[in-house]
């Protein structure tokens, strides 16, 4: 997509035709067409397009989607501010690295996800959100800050997704990342590699709803959860084949709401799970069930008047034949 938007922005800025752009760059019109179709562009050619379009180091995708350099800068400023506030609110014990990213990747990922959800990004930045978020006169912006977090349809949704990202990323960091990084690194480069990369999509699934603002939400959520189920199955199978204990049900990443995921991650980071009888979540459940059985069975027998002699087990029947 970079190549396509580089071409579109250059033509728009210069007010020229595709043929005139080709002459200016010293390439054939056919090459311009290939770039518009998404063909890879060399770094040297990217530099030329950045100069021609005047976008500097900005992400061409963000500039194209938002309608111009000024609008792109404002969206970048907004997403960065919301990310910083959300990051400060994290309680999982793990750093949500996507929110701490200094590049424009988070801004583009956010806007691209909104686009997939069917949100139309306005070509004029919302006036409600166009102010200094860090102004010293807080009383003067208090109402606008409140609007940004709770009322504006764009910023409130983005902020909610970033808060949810804290929780889903925390769960990933607590229970999945170490399996991904296991010795032979077999999972790296596999479809499971997408688990971390697409967590923002999953976060939007946790906080979104099927409404007029998000007309594509149902399809987006269905496809996202379907992909995650397949990716997590890969991780679980790998863990089973390599005798790696699972300290949580990994499918909870898609089954549970983000608050529950955050609490699970926090418990792991604080060491509350070290008291488990067994490091594997499934074996731990079996052992806990046995402990319950040992406590409950004598009471049941007493109620029914069953003696120890009557309850004596034939151990030979406990083995497979």
From TrEMBL:
Give any Pfam family that matches.
Answer: HTH_3
- Where is each HTH cro/C1-type domain found? 14-40
Signal peptide positions (record): none
This chain belongs to which protein, by name? HTH cro/C1-type domain-containing protein
Q: What is the species listed in this Swiss-Prot or TrEMBL entry?
A: Vibrio nigripulchritudo SOn1
* Gene Ontology MF, one: DNA binding
